[in-house]
C-alpha cells in the first residue's frame, strides 16, 4: 500500500506540472501500474486472511462482506441522486 500511495503522489505531481501529451501518456501508464499494484496487494491479502481464520469464521465473514457489498452496490445509484 505504501508503493500505491507513493505512486498516487507522483501522479498528482505529474497532473499539476503540465498537460502535454507526454505527461498524459505517463499519467495513464502510471494509473495502470498503480491499479496492478493495488490488485496484487488485495489478492495477497485475501489469501492471507483465508488461511488465518477457521472455516466457520471465514465463511461467515465472506458471507457478510458479500451481502453488504451487494446492498451497497444496489444503494449507490440512489445515494448519488439524493446527494
List keywords for this structure.
mainly alpha, 2 domains, 3 helices
Question: What's the helix and strand layout?
Answer:
Elements: H1 2-17, H2 21-52, H3 55-82
Helix pairs in contact: 1-2
SSE series: HHH
Using the CA coordinates, give the radius of gyration: 18 Å
Main β-sheet, in a few words? none
Low-confidence stretches: none
Distance between the termini: 30 Å
Mean pLDDT: 85
Count of domain modules: 2
Q: Helical segment tally?
A: 3
Strand content: under 5%
Helix vs. strand class: mainly alpha
Total number of beta strands? 0
Helix content bin: over 70%
Describe this structure in words.
With 83 residues, the chain is mostly helical. The protein has two domains: 1-51; 53-83. The chain has three helices and no strands. The protein has helices at 2-17, 21-52, 55-82. The longest helix is centred in the middle third of the chain and has 32 residues, at 21-52. The chain starts with a helix and ends with a helix. The mean pLDDT is 85.
In short:
It contains 3 helices and no strands.
Amino acid at each position: 500500500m505504501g508503493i500505491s500511495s507513493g505512486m498516487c503522489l507522483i501522479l498528482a505531481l505529474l497532473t499539476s506540472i503540465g498537460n502535454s501529451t507526454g505527461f498524459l501518456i505517463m499519467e495513464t501508464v502510471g494509473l495502470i501500474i498503480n491499479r496492478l499494484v493495488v490488485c496484487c496487494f488485495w489478492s495477497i491479502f485475501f489469501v492471507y486472511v483465508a488461511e488465518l481464520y477457521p472455516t466457520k469464521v471465514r465463511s461467515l465473514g465472506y458471507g457478510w462482506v458479500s451481502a453488504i457489498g451487494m446492498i451497497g452496490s444496489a444503494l449507490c445509484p440512489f445515494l448519488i441522486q439524493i446527494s
